[in-house]
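Long-time lurker, first post. I've been practising inverse folding by hand and with some scripts of my own, and I keep getting stuck on stretches where the C-alpha cells seem ambiguous. Below is the full C-alpha cell string for one chain I'm working on. Before anyone asks, I'm not after the true native sequence, just a reasonable design that respects the backbone. If someone could post their per-position residues I'd love to compare against what I wrote down in my notebook.
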C-alpha cells in the first residue's frame, strides 16, 4: 500500500497550484506568484506506453513571456479522438520537448476550475 501511495504522490507532485489558459497565453500560479507566456503550438506526439496503451501530447513553446515561465509545455488529456476531457496533465520544463516526452513518473493533473471537490474525487476514482 505504501508503494502505491508513493507512486501517486510522485506522479501528482507539483508546485503549480493553478493554471490559467486564455487564447495563446498560459499562466502558472505558484503561491502568490504568477508567471505567464504566450505559447506557440509545435505539433503533437503519440506515445506508446509499456502498458500497451497509447497517449498523445500536444507540444507548445514559449514565444514571449516571463523569465520564470516554462520554455516548453506539453498537454495531455488521455484522449486521441476529439471530445471533452474531465482532466488533463501539463508537463513543463526548460530543457527540450524531447526531454519532456521521456517524463513518465511525474504527471501534474489539473481539473476545470468550476468542478467541485466531490466531482474531482468521483472522476479520479473512475479514471
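-- Answer (accepted) --
I ran through it position by position. Result:
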Amino acid at each position: 500500500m505504501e508503494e502505491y501511495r508513493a507512486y501517486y504522490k510522485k506522479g501528482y507532485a507539483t508546485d503549480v497550484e493553478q493554471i490559467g489558459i486564455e487564447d495563446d497565453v498560459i499562466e502558472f500560479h505558484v503561491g502568490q506568484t504568477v508567471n505567464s507566456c504566450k505559447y506557440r503550438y509545435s505539433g503533437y506526439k503519440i506515445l506508446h506506453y509499456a502498458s500497451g496503451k497509447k497517449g498523445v501530447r500536444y507540444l507548445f513553446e514559449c514565444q514571449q513571456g516571463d523569465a520564470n515561465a516554462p520554455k516548453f509545455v506539453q498537454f495531455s488529456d488521455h484522449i486521441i479522438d476529439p471530445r471533452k476531457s474531465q482532466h488533463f496533465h501539463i508537463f513543463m520544463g526548460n530543457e527540450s520537448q524531447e526531454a519532456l516526452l521521456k517524463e513518465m513518473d511525474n504527471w501534474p493533473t489539473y481539473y476545470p476550475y468550476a468542478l467541485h471537490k466531490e466531482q474531482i474525487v468521483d472522476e479520479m476514482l473512475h479514471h
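A couple of notes from the structure itself: The longest strand covers residues 33-48. The helical segments are 2-12, 97-101, 117-125. Happy to go over any region you disagree with.
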